[in-house]
Amino acid sequence: MPWSVPGPRTGRDWVRAPAADTLRARWRLLLAAGEEAERAALFRPSRSRTLRTAVAQLPGRPSSTVRLAREQGPCPEPVPIRHGAFDRQWLLADHRLLDAARPELWRVADDAQLFAVVQEPPGPAVVFSAELPDGHRPRGRGAVHPLHRRPGGREANLAPGLTALLAARLGTAVAAEDMAAWIAAVACHPAPPHRPGPVAPPAVPLPADPALWRRGTALGRRVLWLSTFGARCADPATDRPAGRPRMPGGQRPFVRRPVPDTPGGFPEQLAYDAEERALLLGDGRIAPVAAGAWEYRVGGERVLEAWFAERAAAAAGAPPGSLEAVRPAGWPQAWTTELIDLATVLSLLAALHGDQAALVRDLAAAPRIGSAELRAAGVLPAPAWAVRPASVLNHREEGPDGQFALL
Length: 407
Description:
Low-confidence stretches: none
Helix content: 25-40%
């Protein structure tokens, strides 16, 4: 996947939140500031963005381009994003608010896209998402690798000639989604193949055995289906129904004791009762939850603990009156549902680790397509144009203050 882009950089934390209503409330507070100095104090200007910065719309996002100093319009519609490996949050997708929005990523973000982000060890080397990821990692930010270079799932972001070579060697058609599934099978688990550096992309071996390829891509499609919370690779015939993944009957987590829905009723911590197989959310209780979900780590961090910290402690240190301090008064019931969905996905992913480890072991002992063959076929190194974004001209993108570019 030669083309990659650094993850979007907001420059201010208040434009991202776990709840869309929180962002709308923050926008209302920003516009309620009568004086420009007061609005600027809330906005948090940077070298890249001030209240008077003139920028174009984000591709495909119908937001105002009026300078923020005189903006009085409605809130930009919050859009779902992936914060870190598995945390689905919301973002004000407005170019005026984001220091480095990466428009080239927004041009290709649609219902056909898959994004890969390389993670830090220990844990999975790569995590896929359907939402545009912000590249956040426990110890920094990572590059985002889209599967497709153009909207609508067109033009695979793969080294030119790779799929044709694989098709010839394996005797079967190979699409971009098949390649993503193979990567997911061998790299999206705690013991991926050799990684040349702490944050470098993993070396993903390619099989020369058609049976091994079929086995890996079938396994990888399930990994992709789970990693995208059912948004991609759905196939009811192979136990991947459209919609939210669910545990088998009798193993589905339920709310045994709800979190109090009262003002100030944020639970102090998220814990796990191994004996009862239960998540303890303050006074709330969710069970059964597999131990594999609780122990699932990315970059050395427990995914569930990181998810909880983003919600319970998001405004702990925010100054009173700041936009960051605007958050739900209590624990929303929707967050409990999101927690159950996340625990379900992590449980099902953890259940695949044995099959993935066996695949990697068998792959190490099987014939493979090596780098020498890829170079001889002209697949490697990827040409310079493949590492740059494609030209996408079918977006009507509004410029600053309502202007449009003439081509």
